[in-house]
Amino acid sequence: MTRTIPTELLTPDAFAPFGDVLAASGAFRLINEGLCRRHHDRARMDFGPQGRAGISIFDAVPRALPYGFDLVERHPDGSQAFVPMHAHPFLVIVAPDQGGQPGQPRAFVTDGAQAINFHRGTWHGVLTPLAAPGLFAVIDRIGDTPNLQEFRFPTPWQVVSGRPDPG
User: Fold this and answer.
1) For the whole model, what pTM was predicted?
2) Which of 12, 114, 115, 131 lies 20 to 30 angstroms, CA to CA, from 19?
3) CA–CA gap between residue 77 and residue 27 (Å, rounded)
């Protein structure tokens, strides 16, 4: 048996319990002699007391909808930002924490011009590009202590295209 999750559009309000949406929208200030808009301080980066910021490059295999999964993970000691190095939408799966385990997952699709930052401890799916290339810059905690917890759902989930019913 598989449980189904419809995709949602990624918006700052809908994603707020899980992290930050990074986009060149809203308030800005002009810099570089007026030739560049700076959308300042878009993410709450958090690397804990025993880590430092690191930038890695991930090259992930693209997936398609419907997309099945049973694995989520979280990073208890630091936030993690995914910045696409392309202009293609990608899938973002998250789940609230319920007593140390993930609750009901949600699935968002970016608009192709958004990046995301997971808050520290947020349950999330693996990097899931929906088109090639699946190239991302990832900013996260680098440190000597473990920063990964994984959870496998006993019953798999399937993400399908569409929005949930409003009522």
Assistant:
1) 0.89
2) 131
3) 30
- Domains of the chain, residue spans: 3-149
Cα gap 62→77, rounded to integer Å: 28
Q: What is the pLDDT of residues 110-129, one digit of tens each?
A: 999 999 999 999 999 999 99
Question: What element of type H or E holds 68?
Answer: strand 67-74
- CB-based contact 143:53 (threshold 8 Å): no
Q: Is 32 left (phi over 0), alpha (psi -120 to 50) or beta?
A: left
Query: 3-149, which class in CATH?
Result: mainly beta
Structure tokens at 17: 């319990």
The answer to whether 157 touches 105, Cβ cutoff 8 Å, is yes
Quote the CA–CA distance of 104 and 61 in Å, as a whole number.
Answer: 25
